[in-house]
Amino acid sequence: MGQTKEERHILSVLVENQPGVLSRVAGLFSGRGFNIESLCVAESTDPLVSRMTIVTIGDLGMVEQIKKQLNKLVNVIKVVDFTGTDFVQRELALIKVRARPENRAEVLRMVDIFRCQVVDVGAESYTVEMTGDEGKISAFLNLLKPMGIKEIARTGALALAREKK
Amino acid sequence: MKKLTGAEILLRSLREEGVDTLFGYPGGAVIDIYDRLVRVDIKHVLVRHEQGAVHAADGYARTSGRVGVCLVTSGPGATNTVTGIATAYMDSIPVVVLTGQVSSGLIGNDAFQEVDIVGITRPCTKHNYLVTDIEDLSRVVKEAFYLARSGRPGPVLIDLPKDVMTMTAPYRPGKRIKLRSYQPTHRPNLRQLDKVVRLVKEAKSPLILAGGGVVLSKAAGELTRFAKKIEAPVTATLMGLGVFPAQDPLWLGMLGMHGTYRANMATSRCDLLIAVGVRFDDRVAGKADTFASQANIVHIDIDPSSIRKNVPVSIPVVGDCRLALKILNDLLEKEKLNGIREVRVPWLGQIEEWKSAKPLAYEQDRVIKPQYVIESLYKLTRGEAVVTTEVGQNQMWAAQYYHFDKPNSFITSGGLGCMGFGLPAAIGAQVARPDEMVVDIAGDGSIQMNIQEMATAVQYRLPIKIVLLNNRYLGMVRQWQELFYDRCYACTGMDHAPDFVKLAEAYGAAGLRATRPEEVEPVLKEGLSLDKPTLMDFLVEKEEMVYPMVPAGAPITEMLLV
Ligand SMILES: Cc1ncc(C[n+]2csc(CCOP(=O)(O)OP(=O)(O)O)c2C)c(N)n1
Ligand SMILES: [Mg+2]
User: Fold this and answer.
1) Of B99, B176, B414, B479, whose Cβ has the fewest other Cβ atoms within 10 Å?
2) Which secondary structure element, helix H or strand E, spans residue A66, and what is its range?
3) Probe residue for ligand 1, chosen from B80, B391, B448 as the CB with the greatest number of ligand atoms within 8 Å
4) Rounded to an integer, what distance in angstroms lies between the CA atom of residue B425 and that of residue B220?
5) pTM above 0.90, yes or no
6) Are B308 and A1 within 8 A, CB to CB?
7) Does residue B81 contact residue B54 with C-beta atoms inside 8 Å?
8) Does the beta carbon of B477 lie inside 6 Å of ligand 1?
9) pLDDT of the residue at A3
10) pLDDT tens across B57-114, in order?
11) Is the CB–ligand 1 distance for residue B475 below 6 Å?
12) Global ipTM
């Protein structure tokens, strides 16, 4: 419908914790040509309810459709769009970086600056755990890149609304 | 408490929902259900292909306003239902599809006749279930019927593993439904409706567009009252035909790709478009950004995702169409509308001009014109038949030349455009309305897609009438080839067809044929009077075109006319 500016939206979706729900949501995105940048899902405070955090990109019309279509799924309880609201966002990344004797010190220094942790040490590599928002994680990855990143595992964004003041 | 088998619990639960008819086809995975079914008070109609079962249940639902139900076996039985399910889904028809499944212990093992039908039908059902615990069974059935008929209706599938059907448990009727994750907005927002009233009072040239949602919410009466009150002309989508009497001077005919000249023109010139229960499909809206570009658009629909999906809307109203129209009518009672007739004079005059400039037209000469067959059918049935259609030119001529006055009387696959729908749908319609004349307006291509259901009609003595517009072509595709592909009729010839009269007779039905215009009425008269399934084969003009036509993707005012 002609609104072209694309934006990143973080949706928090409460769904019934039942088999098939993930595939209903994922199928909705693929079937209707919506984008998923990341999706993570786990139980919420209520064991019968899971929280999905979905990061998507689209113009206003598309994001409105995404929310409406999600709401239409029978197992979806609630959809919240964090964009434009006050919320905290975090992502966890595990990064296996090459750590030869000559650059071990450099890696540890950066781990220190970014307040991450080394969670596994090998002869050839360190595995670093870091949490942060998108910007922090990509800044860290950019700095590590010259040393050689062997593998990465990321959760995708998680988000919760901040308490109203 | 006495224990029942899963099959017995299923059937009890169906009875609780008021089910009196199942359309189905047996097989290993549902043999236990069938074994019980013949002992209870539910009629079973044995179709000849599972696609036919879903279409029949669908036709039953569309003509009765109740939920249609079908029952098929696992594997191929289940996959054969997919086209029928997608048809019902696109047109929002309440159908419950019961599929057998292999025993729960075998699921996932590629067992004999196992398919993941819940996975396959996820995108084309409103919701679906796999029942793995007999304790869930009666609740799931209750939920399925509730989901199928409430909110924006649609098909719901229940997959039933064989072992769940044979194990036993006490029967506990499903409790009242409360789904925290499913609460359709039934009651529209009053403030929005106040705004609608204001726009109605200000409008000089308003237009009402009615769709399938008006049929589904049983709102035809309120819609007609509304239109007359505000003196606004009415058009409808294919799915909305019948919600406003075609005899009324305010009626414009259908809108869209094969809509009337005046309906399409009125849509592009109106200053207020009140769209009720529609979803602005591309066959209706054409080039969406030019659609009703001079109008404020009011869009009333129970499904929020239909609103602002394809066209911009000034006033969205989410809610049940009938309730919204009823409240609007009540609000308008309090308004002084006495001057409205004079205000409308120029607008209605303009519409009259469009109507006489470019009416629907054809010329009947030496070869039978399909339009003439439909007009004659309309005349001879006094417009009172329940009409189902196949898909293609036959469907569009039925929409244009059979003038529907009542809802639930034009039964057609709108959204999916599913060839092969008409005959099984007619069977479902005749089961739902045994005392009425049911006619399938068919094409020679489409009728062959579910021709096997002739046997069903004969077996159950359902005196449906098939009016076959036999142009020896996949006519609608040929029409596109003629207009847009340099008359290259690639693979659309249908000369290798059976002798349809003999075919009907082979099934035990009656077959009649008309080859010349003067035979049309006598054949119709005879065929309509027979008390058994009857196929009437009309050899019509091979290359007749459906006009008006708006090329796909063009603004709806760019009409190719006769
Ligand atoms: C199942 C299915 N396959 C293909 C099509 C594409 N299609 C649309 S209209 C049409 C021609 C239908 O031919 P016929 O039934 O003879 O009707 P006519 O247009 O000639 O009246 C076809 C092939 C369809 N709509 N449905
Ligand atoms: Mg044909």
Assistant:
1) B176
2) helix A60-72
3) B391
4) 22
5) yes
6) yes
7) yes
8) yes
9) 57
10) 999 999 999 999 999 999 999 999 999 999 999 999 999 999 999 999 999 999 999 9
11) yes
12) 0.93
